[in-house]
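re: ur question from yesterday

yeah so i grabbed the chain u mentioned. its 297 aa long if i counted rite. heres the sequnce exactly as i have it in my notes:
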Amino acid sequence: MAFPDITLRDANSRSKSAETSVISEYLDYFNSIINKSNWTWSFGSTVEEAPPPRFRLEDVQASGFPALIKCMWESYEDPPQSLFHLFCPILGIGCGARARAIEESTKRMQAWHDAEPESYWQKVVDVESGKIVAGALWKIYKKNPFVKYNINGSGGSGIDENGGAAHGGEEGAYWWPKGSRRNYVNQALEQFEKPQMELAARPHLYLNIIFTHPSSRRQGAAALVLEWGIAKAKELNVEIWLDAWEHGVEVYRRYGFTVETEVEIKPETADPDEEWMLLEEELRPMKIWVMKWSPER
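ran it thru and got these structure tokens back, copy pasting raw so excuse formatting
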């Protein structure tokens, strides 16, 4: 395909009005081409094809969970995030403890995904290397997901009609050993889940997990996830809810999210034992900012 040369030459050879008309024609011509193809252009330069995108957003298949969860661990460990440790603890000691924890959490999260129709995992892949650089877990709720929970009853938030915790059923955080540490985590998870259950009791999208590997931060990987989510929310005409750490609040605000409430997660017991106090020292402080994006914005 031949393109007209838009480099301005011999400007004195034509009148100002004629020159303006010619430029306008060139602009109209190139806008029509650019809108239909992957081209960029500028004055005084040749037309060049835009470089291919560096990252690609993909669905996660069952075979992709080990690599995805490994990336998630590496992301949440740098810097360490205490809420992640609630869901993915390293139990035991020795050089193999972390590897066993990653294997256990991979199987558990895949099982949770398989059991929940609303669960939708995504990964962001480096096009050149094929490596996963970011990931996200969305919950696409087309109806109120909290109708089965009695958040105002004697059991408190996170307790369903049968008395079971919202995470893990009656056992609560079953991935922790029974005892005071599990009791601590169960309280923390109830406090973590309560705001969403009270504020978002209607159809919505929930950005449950989002992470970017330290080697690929500030390069647009997470933006692909957020842009997808906003487009999906507009399609369904629903809100998006998420829980942010302090350093992420301003990032989400740039995408139109607003802070609805702040929550300090602070489990308590009348008689804490050594296990309780050690876990509290390891995890505290835990504070989240509950944020919402609305299609009315």
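noticed a couple things. Confidence is low (pLDDT under 50) at residues 1-20, 36-46, 150-166. also Helices lie at 16-34, 65-76, 82-87, 97-115, 180-199, 221-236, 249-253, 274-283.
anyway ttyl
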